[in-house]
């Protein structure tokens, strides 16, 4: 058993100070276990490893249900191992059984304040302010500490986009695990890169509008116009142009307009306007 100051055996006498009061400072993970429980024996070494690794970012409070039956009964523990996480003096989350280390780590990270989160926010603010050299140093520091940190990789991609290194940004995003690639902020970045590529190769907006005045059925010009509008953050106007292509020339670019509308939705994020345009799009499709 590890000798850690962050792992404490719980009794009725110290439950209040360790779990209730202690969770006002840092999360407290309460592990209900017993000597006869084989899954408990599998879980305990994982929890001990993590409590050593996290070095005070959480407290591991161990409740032997055979010796502390009153505490186990109070929390209606009927099956072990049972693990409850306390924050602010109250249980806020739990899991049952001997989960794999990766799942327990993810469970903890949902609740433990991560110093790197503040650094990432700082780096993103630097990028927004054009202080890309400072942001690069901070992001590299985060990647040196954890090369697989998905939020640091996303920040790296944002930095590369800001300084015009689109290929490096694309490679960074593609290096993310699949579940991370499906997150809204990543989908929005990928969509932004697509429209930027189209816009860079397209004529100016005024020229495209003139083309469409001369030939309202020029889907290529309309698609390019939509990309230019996206780059100017005129997203609703871009959707209007793409919707016209869906309506009049569905086959254009192997259904490019419908796909582009979905990517504009990714950029917009959670907004009521999406349901309106999605409904109109479906009306033309079916």
TrEMBL record:
Q: Which GO terms describe its cellular component?
A: cytosol
One example of the protein's molecular function in GO is: protein-disulfide reductase activity
The record's annotation in SUPFAM superfamilies points to: Thioredoxin-like (SSF52833), TPR-like (SSF48452)
Q: Which family does it belong to?
A: Belongs to the thioredoxin family.
Which biological processes are named by the entry's GO terms? cell redox homeostasis; response to stress
Does the record carry Calcium as a key word? Answer: no
Protein's UniProt name: Thioredoxin
Q: Which domain of life is it from?
A: Bacteria
Ranges for domain Thioredoxin come to: 6-113
Per the record, a Pfam family? Thioredoxin
Protein's UniProt keywords contain Disulfide bond: yes
Q: What organism does the UniProt record list as the source?
A: Solemya elarraichensis gill symbiont
Q: Which InterPro entries match?
A: Thioredoxin, Thioredoxin-like_sf, Thioredoxin_CS, Thioredoxin_domain, TPR-like_helical_dom_sf
Q: Which UniProt keywords apply?
A: Disulfide bond, Electron transport, Redox-active center, Transport
